Amino acid sequence: MYTAKKWIYAKPFTNEPTLENFQLVEEPVPQLQDGEFMIRAMYLSVDPYMRIYTLNCPVGSTMIGGQVGEVIESKNGDFPVGSYAFAQVGWRTISICNPALFETRKPYVLADFGDLPISLGMGALGTVGNTAYFGFLEICKPQPGETVVVSGAAGAVGSIVGQIAKIKGCRVIGIAGTREKCNWLREIGFDGTINYKEDNIEEALKQLAPDGVECYFDNVGGYTSEVVKGQMKAFGRISVCGTISMYNGKPAQVIDPQRDFVWKQLMQEGFSVHRWTDRWFEGIKQNMQWIREGKIKVRETYTEGFENMPSAFIDMMKGKNIGKAVVKV
Q1: What are the phi and psi torsion angles at 246 (to 5°)?
Q2: What is the reported pLDDT for 263?
Q3: How many whole angstroms separate alpha carbon 40 and alpha carbon 70?
Q4: How buried is 236 (Cβ within 10 angstroms: 0-12 exposed, 13-18 middle, 19+ buried)?
Q5: Which domains does the chain have, with CATH numbers?
Q6: Fewer CB within 10 Å, N- or C-terminus of the chain?
Q7: pLDDT band at 1, cuts 50/70/90?
């Protein structure tokens, strides 16, 4: 019998998460039943949504999240032993999965990545990549020559959104929080960057986009987003992926949030990537092609060791990662 390690949500979050919010425990793994498979984690994801979604979980719950792992036992023909799979089973080293019990975020065997790292199954060739692909293209509907602004641009989703925008012939401005991140964004093709910790966002955006902004992919919300909305052109489109600036409960400086929507007749839409579950592998296939063609460059920030999951999560929430934050078991 296997023994699994797991991190539980031990204490409610107050403002920024700390190590006290988590507890590492062990438990025996039960025997497999028909229709189930057993997965051993190889790479685990830490993402901003965990901070806000966990508020709906009772204390003592396993921390939520996805992982890529190896199928080590199976009584499900769709998940053969030795295959690599993605499963939304939380911060666990070994898990039992019955795909029939998942209403959404169902587990699946990874496509053949060839020489690409399988950790991309949680990132550019998984939920992250599809969030960028569908959330940007389906909602913003970018046109060649348009100006696109991406906040949280050096993160896992934002960096891919910006590169897809370039593929579609747009001019792209990325907003990030360090000089290193801004330098990297320019290296991967962004036309301009704004360091929100050092620059005056409003003035910098006026210089970079003097004619206004057609598309905005919003990862952060708060003051940054209100400034961008104020410089959008009439009939601009906004795709709202997240509001990370507000996740830790700090008050945000806000301008009148409705004025620009009314006067400029803007379109804004929030989304969950699982709206496009029926097209999931379309996004993965296209992003894989763009990666192989060199049109999308991917960066991952690795943390070694399952015992360091909380630290990786805390660092990611503080913006210390560039690209996708990944924990390697």
Answers
A1: -105, -5
A2: 77
A3: 5
A4: buried
A5: 3-123+299-328 (3.90.180.10), 127-273 (3.40.50.720)
A6: N
A7: confident
Whether the pLDDT of residue 103 is over 90: the answer is: no
pTM of whole model > 0.85?
Answer: yes
**Is residue 244 predicted with pLDDT exceeding 90?**
no
- Using a 10 angstrom Cβ sphere, with 0-12 exposed, 13-18 middle and 19 or more buried, the burial of residue 182 is buried
Give the contacts of 321 (CB within 8 A, at least 6 positions apart). Answer: 155, 156, 301, 315
- 256-294 burial, b at 16+ Cβ within 10 Å, e below that, comes to eeeebbeebebebeeeebbebeeebeebbebbbebbeee
DSSP secondary structure of 64-81: P--EEEEEEEES-TTS-T
Q: For residue 138, give both structure tokens.
A: 């389906």
Q: Tokens 């998942």 belong to which residue?
A: 102
Following CA atoms 219, 288, 272, 325 in sequence, which dihedral angle do they give, to the nearest 10 degrees? -50
Q: Quick one: pLDDT at residue 55?
A: 87
Question: How much of the chain exceeds pLDDT 90, in percent?
Answer: 88
Q: What is the pLDDT, as a whole number, of residue 259?
A: 67
Residue corresponding to tokens 């025996």: 28
| CB contact at 8 A, 185 and 192 | no
